[in-house]
TrEMBL record:
Catalytic activity line of the entry: alpha-D-glucosaminyl-[heparan sulfate](n) + 3'-phosphoadenylyl sulfate = 3-sulfo-alpha-D-glucosaminyl-[heparan sulfate](n) + adenosine 3',5'-bisphosphate + H(+)
Residue span, Sulfotransferase domain: 67-311
Principal location class: Golgi
MF-aspect GO terms: [heparan sulfate]-glucosamine 3-sulfotransferase activity
Chain positions recorded as 3'-phosphoadenylyl sulfate binding sites: 76-80, 159, 167, 269, 285-289
GO CC field: Golgi membrane
One Pfam entry name: Sulfotransfer_1
Source domain of life: Eukaryota
Protein name: Sulfotransferase
Organism field: Crocodylus porosus
Length: 322
């Protein structure tokens, strides 16, 4: 059952506060103590691996819930890091893989039950979150998600647009190199050789025009249902960003500095779930970018600037992007 916008209590410039089934009971987190949920993470992990019988699932009152929040983008903005960090919260359960339900016509045709069964097992008062960065830029997705749940919370994590585009290129380049294939230099793809202007047909450039994609989403969802995460700050100072997300999702504050420790070898923050279980992101994160002609970087930043200003205006969040 999903609650309509009319059943939400709205506050000016704040997110809808909806009594969505499956988040917390009428007495808040007291329904299932968050401390108890943390101790049961290992049990949920076993169920995710498929090592559970129907009787065990029934006894533990576990369910596969549709997501109450989705990280819809942006590719190379830090979606994996955000998902893993939010999973530190004992009331959050993540879908480990990108489902690609709403952006893939073949998957979407399988129906909403197929999608639900791709979700992890959780306790009724936990919330499930999935992430598929392709959702943000795929035209059909906003309407499809709206039809599933018009009150869903939507998370968008962004980085400085030129840096994000270069990171996008770097990932594709690495894939080509693994297959011993050659690939164009970034400059040749990002700049149209005939006009010497920014090549908006290049997908890495198009993806970084955040406002163009967001405007399509706003045809279906009010801005209050979106939360913008600063992907650059999540790398250097993750806790304040995660606390903002906790507030947006109406979660009690549980992620603390204890859960995040800086790994000097990797140059990134790693995650501490408890005294025995730590986790760092995959080694593919934080790839070294190729050197790019400074004049091309300047041209791209000048191109993105007016789009960035509009993005700030729409979202109410300003970034120190050049």
């Amino acid at each position: 059952m999903y609650w309509t916008h009319q059943m939400c209590i709205r506050t000016r410039r704040l997110q809808p506060i909806c009594p969505i089934d499956g988040r917390f009971g009428p007495h808040g987190q007291d329904e299932i103590p968050l401390r108890a949920l943390q101790f049961k993470r290992g049990l949920l992990h076993e169920f995710r691996k498929g090592n559970a019988t129907k009787e065990q699932i029934r006894l533990h009152n576990l369910v596969q819930q549709l997501p109450k929040a989705i990280i819809i983008g942006v590719r190379k903005g830090g979606t994996r890091a955000l998902l893993e960090m939010l999973n530190l919260h004992p009331a959050v359960v993540k879908a480990s893989q990108e489902i690609h339900f709403f952006d893939n016509d073949e998957n979407y045709a399988k129906g909403i039950e197929w999608y639900r069964k791709k979700m992890p097992f959780s306790y009724p008062h936990q919330i499930t979150i999935e992430k598929s960065p392709a959702y943000f830029i795929t035209e059909e997705v906003p309407e499809r998600i709206y039809k599933m749940n018009s009150s869903i919370k939507l998370l968008i994590i962004v980085r400085e647009p030129t840096t994000r585009a270069i990171s996008d290129y770097t990932q594709v380049l690495e894939g080509k190199e693994r297959k011993n294939k050659t690939y164009y230099k970034f400059e040749k793809l990002a700049i149209d050789p005939t006009t010497c202007e920014v090549n908006t047909k290049y997908k890495a450039v198009r993806t970084s025009i955040y406002t163009k994609h967001l405007e399509r989403w706003l045809k279906y969802f009010p801005i209050e249902q979106f939360h913008i995460v600063d992907g650059d700050r999540l790398i250097t100072e993750p806790l304040p960003e995660l606390q903002l997300v906790e507030k947006f999702l109406n979660l009690p504050p549980r992620i603390s500095q204890y859960n995040l420790y800086f790994n000097a070898t990797r140059g990134f923050y790693c995650l501490r779930f408890n005294i025995v279980f730590n986790k760092c992101l995959a080694g593919s994160k934080g790839r070294i970018h190729p050197e790019v002609d400074p004049s091309v970087i300047t041209k791209l930043r000048k191109f993105f600037h007016p789009f960035n200003q509009k993005f700030y205006q729409i979202t109410g969040r300003t970034f120190n992007w050049p």
